[in-house]
Amino acid sequence: RSMLKGEKEACYHTVSFSEVVLAEEKGTHKLVAIKCIPKKALEGKENSIENEIAVLHKIKHANIVSLEEIFESKSHLYLIMQLVSGGELFDRIIEKGFYTEKDASKLIQQILDAVKYLHDMGIVHRDLKPENLLYYSMDEDSKIMISDFGLSKIEGSGSVMSTACGTPGYVAPEVLAQKPYSKAVDCWSIGVIAYILLCGYPPFYHENDAKLFEQILKAEYEFDSPYWDDISDSAKDFIVHLMEKDPNTRYTCDQALQHPWIAGDTALDKNIHESVSAQIKKNFAKSKWKQAFNATAVVRHMRRLQLGTSHEGLNPPLASPCQTHLLEEGAGGDSSGCIVVSNRFESLTGSS
After folding, report:
1. CATH superfamily of the 89-283 domain
2. Looking at the annotation, which residues are catalytic?
3. Interhelix angle for 184-199 vs 233-242, to 10°?
């Protein structure tokens, strides 16, 4: 277990040292998210961030957050990312008054399309989970977007992946067993996400990691009553094929996309919002370090604060560590503390 824990932590480091700021491109007023990575934090980890950038550079898909540009200063690396402003998956489900199997099916179809695209390019995400699924906009019919490629791996010719990566609760049995694994790990994770979308709680849960890993290794999960009583047999069948212990018989993205619950009309229209949202609130407390936000509202709020600073004598919003450092090294900063990366961008928020 200690070896597994060490490898797992080694895989997590890409999310722990970066900061994200909301910014606006001055010329076009286009909003972007800038991932600020201190070079000091990269020492000894250069390969990992190079991998993330290599992966992001290759990807162009409607349901995947894109890397638009890269800037570099003496002390920081800046990834200019497409901004997604619609909030996190669970928040939107809770906010809905009506939510059905069909809604869940449409969400999973988009995720499958995106992951199939990745797999066709030889890319394995390795950390698919609800927290990495964001809505593109606040529109009711907004598409879902996959973000965070810090653990992604580009398959090389003949290369075998064996490093224990991912988030406990979503990782496939073969990963925990420290066996060589493949694209099938992503399909397992999609099965776990589909399970949660239909009941609001995870298929595997235990406060003791060893017990949790034991459940996953045995692929022990249930469709508990009463939470699954109103869910179709087709939905359960879909999940069973994705959460299959043997990666060789587990559904691929192609097979999953052809399942009647996705491609047919077997997903039910019955409203399951009350039960699912209650369970989500109970089982998925909001992560403090990763807050969803409505970009438009944030921009409006920050500008109001800055206006207040000028005209009402209010204290200005504090600059984030990333912004402060940029000002010190003169990377396009001005006296207001608002310019980030280059004079093309104006920072509108601190870290999020």
Report:
1. Transferase(Phosphotransferase) domain 1 (1.10.510.10)
2. 127
3. 150
